[in-house]
Protein 1
Amino acid sequence: MNDELTKVDIQKMQEEIEYRMCTLAPKLKEELARARAHGDLSENYEYKIAKSELNRNYSRVNYLKRMIDSAVVIDAESADDEVGLFDRVTVFIEDEKVEEVYTLVTTLRCDALRSLISKESPVGRALMGHKVGDRVKVTVNDTVSYFVEIRKIEKGEDDTSLEIATY
């Protein structure tokens, strides 16, 4: 399955790769060399940590490169009266009798604690393309679903300040 990402997502990943390869990797290699110079590697905790950090850095770079290679670049535009990517949506959750406000983002920038909901999550999938006043069924799995009513849509745009997820 290919991830649907925006041009900004791709740009942010490329910037992180460049930082990790040009700035962070040389520092981590220096730390590894410094730790190696302390002697016996079998009992050298600093060496093990430095090696682990360098490996983690390369793992992240490889992950980001795979994401870029397999990504499908999408446009964030939607109709003025429909829920789209980066829109802020106020919904009324019928079962709980509460209003929630979500911003729909790409999977790479979701953060449920900040109400940044992936467009591929159950809520995001259910809301995309709908209008104010629509009653939408959110299907979590085969046995769990609930209804929400869209109360308000505030059109948004791709916010470059939103960080990409670390993993």
Protein 2
Amino acid sequence: MRKFTVSQSQEGLHVVKASQEAFPQLKSADLFHALKRRDIRIDGKKVNKDIAVKAGNEVEIWLPDELFDSSRKAAPAGSQEKMFEIVAETKGLLIVNKSQGIAVHSGKSDIEDTLIDLVRQTTKYRDAELCHRIDMNTGGLVLIAKNKAALADCVELFKNGLVTKRYRALVLGEPVVGDPAVGEDGTIYKEVKGYLEKTKAGKVYIHDEKQPGDLDIATKYRILKTFANAGPDGESVSDLELELVTGRTHQIRAQFAHLGHPVIGDGNYGRNKVNMFFETPDGKKVKYQQLFSCRIIFGRVPKDNMHVDVSGKTYKILPDYNVRLS
């Protein structure tokens, strides 16, 4: 355990930032986990939120002694910001582009900083909240509310179908199944449907016939480009654009693997033989699934919703594919 007294210059800082000023070798991940375990005390009172501190407060940090070792290197300045970038900012929202390999929020096995931790730490929005989630190894666009009021209004947009999310993915083969469908902006797609089972352990299975407890799923897709003979047995690889109709856990990855077209690099639902075949442009193993959240489309937002400033707008990025296909 170590402790420090908040100085006048630290007045108003949140406890994580103030603690890192007192002990630069501490990582924000260490401190956020300590908060969750109620291992930080302010004037003797346990806290579990990154609250602001006042001059004169005594802060106790109950972490292992080795984490306070002065020889332990602090994270390089600016390194955290590289884990995400702010694509756009509105009155109540940050639209950020998340790097692959970063969890959007904490889980049982997370040991590194999460996206929401980093946003709270490196921006002025200490009360920021996630509006939705994407998988740790999926990169791309995520909506973050600047505060709880902004979150509530954004949740209303999702409930009323006013937020459309589109993805890009590299998959094995050339999908042909599905019924004709029209996207939110008139784009012509094929739509595939099915039923998703999620076990208590968090595993996902796709069924063609509905079973007790299954959730309906639907995804629209179109092939943007085909790479002939790019697979391990001469199969094609397709660059897909996908529009979510439903947004279930691991929906795209599990559904297209079930259809025989796994996402390249997907270690959970893909095929090991396929994943081992592909390499990055510099000859290394493909580390992440080739799946990106690339476009968020807003519908007509009611005037009484604080996010009216995004009404009818679209935010987009290009996928950062990292696989050699020729």
